[in-house]
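Wed. Picked up where I left off yesterday with Outer-membrane lipoprotein carrier protein. The coffee machine is broken again, so keeping this brief.
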Amino acid sequence: MKKIVLLMVLGLCLVAGIARSDNSATEQLIGLLAGVQQLQGQFRQVQYAQEDETVTANSSGRFKLLKPHYVSWEIDSPDNQLIVADGEHLWHFDRDLETVTRRPVAGQQDLSPLQILAGDTALLRERFLVSRTGQGRFRLAPVDDKAAFKALTLVFVEDRISAMEVVDKLNQRLFIELLAVDGESALTPADFLFEPPEGADLFYHDR
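Structure written out below (tokens, as returned):
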């Protein structure tokens, strides 16, 4: 579970699917995302085995998102990890291992699901094939061929994002349910500041 979650949040992009672009679906999704300026709440993640419904792992935690560049994803069970995009750097703090990894945000071409929610909607038109797969369900397949995932599905209930589903190259499926979603309480860039704790091992990939 840890491997799949970290690949997702650290921004490995999705693999292209064989599909026809649906311009109306793209524009409808962009319209829904335009209403998302900030979000916070809790999440529950379930990982399933290849091509069946066997649950292989569970995790839960909290998230925050502020357009256009700020994301916080904190796993508190069963591991204890924090991933933060502060507009300049992408931080990963593994509290169990007491390690901190930092990468520059600038120049990264990969997009994670939460970064798609927070990012430039022009990228949806340029880099993804979007199709509707049901009421409030949108499947995104990127046009590149260098990614770790086959598909991302965004699920909306009453025009509010409620879940995401990621399928990787091994056909493992990660379902992320967003709970107690709050789009009204104000967030600021200060809510995404991160300072490495004293004594942690630091691995900076921008030096």
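Quick read: The chain has four helices and twelve strands.
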